[in-house]
Amino acid sequence: MLDSIKSLARQYAADIVQTRRHLHAHPELSFQEHNTARFVADQLKAIGITPQEGVADTGLVALIEGNKSNSSSPSKVVGLRADMDALPIHEANNVSYKSTVEGVMHACGHDAHTASLLGVARILHVLRDQFDGTVKLVFQPGEEKAPGGASMMIREGVLENPAPVSMLGQHVAPNIPVGKIGFREGMYMASTDEIYMTVRGKGGHAAMPDNLVDPVLIASHIIVALQQIISRNRPPASPSVLSFGRFIADGVTNVIPNEVTIQGTFRCMNEEWREEGKKRMVKLAEGIAEAMGGSCEFTIVHGYPFLKNHPELTRRVRAQAVEYMGAENVVDLDLWMAGEDFAFYSQVVDSCFYRLGTRNEARGIISGVHTPTFDIDEAALETGAGLMSWLAVRELATE
């Protein structure tokens, strides 16, 4: 089976590259992936697979049934996920497949994820008489935007009828050389919550601060004080980040405004601490503002949970990757405080989210995700499709 999968991945590599280039040239933002969904559906139908369309509006689900056994007992199901949305970024690459949509770009590799999963569909459809069980292909919208397409697909039953015993997902990694794969057991990526504050006071002439309630000063105290929640209240073994990227005080040199708006993000890897930390932030911010004569409207947009890779599943999948790639091409990952809505699956079913190396320094392919010059070494697509096919059939064969 291993040799057959590698051979088919090699045979379909050029087609997978062309699929990725089409998707890259025609990106669509989160929950607007209508053309992408139609394209994916057409590709699946051309293979001989009829997908369920319109899941969470622009998502698709497809099943590949193994035919090796004629047993009437329920078959094991493994889910494979790819996300399809792009980002509001203007592409700066000068390539033949450059985005044709002004201000929209596949800057996070979701085009590669979708193309790879379509490659998996090709490979496993050909080999369906050589394995038992069911592979559930999940083409998901809206990974980049809350509430996350994963949460919506779960609500619409993507983890039911049939229910997968495990979910696998892969993500491009521009910090890992092409041809290598990365894994991490346990907690891997952070929960993501958005923070919005409006600090109100009484503005006026900057030369007469005694007649004012300075919201700039209040907001500054709040931002500094909130960091003590991370340093003094956080459980030491629970990684957390609190960052503020937007602070607007729309005054001038001699005018203090009536209000200040602030935006930031809170990230951690412990759901109990996550809720406790947010309660403490609200209480502290409101208390400081009141003590200084102002007020603080503190809003938290609840985002993705933290992503946890099931230890036993991840150890097993890592060993299967070594079988496919060789031990020298399988690396260990560090914690990553970025967020990913695959975390919703990981909170419900045994899951493993791993990284697909796409970096090629010799060719200048070194830019990080979410940047205008992000690209991948497309040799990774053969690896992505072949390895995921192998992991799926090996998982189906695991007792």
From TrEMBL:
One of its GO terms (biological process) is diaminopimelate biosynthetic process. The Mn(2+) ion enhances activity. InterPro entries: Amidohydrolase, Bact_exopeptidase_dim_dom, Peptidase_M20, Peptidase_M20_dimer. Its cofactor is Mn(2+). Transmembrane segments: none annotated. Keywords: Hydrolase, Manganese, Metal-binding. Mn(2+) binds at C108, H110, E144, H171, H370. One of its GO terms (molecular function) is N-acetyldiaminopimelate deacetylase activity. Residues 197-287 form the Peptidase M20 dimerisation domain. NCBIfam families: amidohydrolases (TIGR01891). This is Amidohydrolase. The lineage of its organism: Bacteria, Pseudomonadati, Bacteroidota, Cytophagia, Cytophagales.
